[in-house]
UniProtKB/TrEMBL annotation:
It is a multi-pass membrane protein. Pfam families: Omp85, POTRA. This is POTRA domain-containing protein. GO terms for cellular component: chloroplast outer membrane; mitochondrial outer membrane. Residues 1-69 are annotated as: Disordered. Residues 91-169 form the POTRA domain.
Amino acid sequence: MSNPDSLPDVTPLKSKPDPEHPKPFNTDDIDEEEEEDGDENDVEYDDEDAKGEVFGEPNRLKPQSREAQFRSEKLKMDSLLQRMQSGPVSVRVHDVIIKGNTKTKDHVIEAETEVLNNVGSMQELLKASQIVNLRLQALEIFDSVKITLDSGPPELPGTANVIIEVVETASPLSGQIGAYTKAEARSSTVEGSLKYKNFFGYGDLWDGSLAYGYDHSAELSAGVFLPRFKGLVTPVTARAYLLSQDWLKFSSYKERSMGLSLGLFSTPYHDLAYNLAWRTLTDPSQMSSRSIRRQLGHNLLSSLKYTFKFDRRNSTMRPTRGYAFVSTTQIGGLTPDSRSLRFLRQEFDLRYVVPLGFYHAALNFGVSGGVVFPWGNGFSSRPSSLPERFFLGGNISPVCALGGPTALWGFKTRGLGPTEPKRQVNKENAEPSGVDFLGGDLAVTALADLSFDLPFRWFREKGIHAHVFACAGNVAKLTENEYRNISVQKFVESLRSSVGVGLVVPTSLFRMEKFWTLYWSLAQAKTGVWHASPVASEHFGSYIGCQQNFGI
């Protein structure tokens, strides 16, 4: 049964006055009536107080004291709660009244209240009111939302009116600035953003952001979010961006993209987006390998991306029960331009968490995979696009990351998969210049993680816990007819895996983690060599940092 006391800003149903007697005093409006009217002579009457006559005058009701009024309201509320405990209390919504919106259009608020039209009992009405409250707050355009449940017209018994009172934000302009550090990559970024809320009164959110990294990576973007546009049932988003990424250290190329992303359809489980971008790959070092040099130049990305996702875990940072699944399908090459990248990309991620019932312990199992392949004439002999390939490694937490094969503890960034020697600048010098990590067209990862509380009260109160993990993964090449040379046996033999223990220290700003790993390659099983590798990873998502919010 829903508990009305636990619902935020939802005032219980008020009883309708008896036709023969005045309406009882409403305790919810005590402060408001005193402040607005300032008249303490307004009294309510109750028929139980009419116990006598005044000589020479008709019978009159005696004023009801404030304490009696409060007791009367409390008895009625207790009676309603008892009825709700015994079973459903039939009620339907007669009208939804919106107050306080001076700039926001009514239809924006009404679109979030459609769930109220389907209620059939008081229990359902309380639950639906809570949902509406949360939805309105999620629009980020109101400072406060209050929902009051009032009785319907006397001629329509069993009905209720829902009164929604909103207070529009007093500071429509807000901002955020922060500095973040990727510990494993030894790089830092400074990020800032500005957001303007409800500019046209349609619940529209306009924002611009700028991020700059000390490794010369940068991103500039601006976008708009419309919760309801032209009667569409789902939000619409549009974002223009200019992106520069530096992968010289790992794969000897820089990537610059300028494009537009348009969200076409979005629900809690489904998301459909279109991306159009002009992308350029360059190699300022002129040391890239032959495979990288073949990818340099300009190309056009025109793709449609569909994501299906549901997450039933109780936490994304430290899940102790539940399950989650994500599937992403992307098709590129939706324009007739010859420079348009034509590819099919599919990836999935499955998680399942088993609670153990002691020390807040839980077993987290996960498996993810992905494949990318070009399409069109001669697709089997052409290479896949470099930025669309899969790269494994780095110290992003596989427990926190959900979306596909990206994270694998114990290996450096892009450290798994095919490699190729870089170009020799000085041919007289026989020393190698290093290798380029090329990524792969097929990627698979698996994870098993046991998290548990430490047997110290102070650690438990601070959320500090330990975990033991084992993960494995591999990346392989399929394009350029390489799929003919791959087999399940070869793929399994080249798996890379690691086991380790870690200590997690969550804070209000970031999640810090220190862990030690042993990594193992089945291809090296004959030597029987284990490699110990202590690795430190501090990340909020994948980094540590601090940020400051401000409003104007």
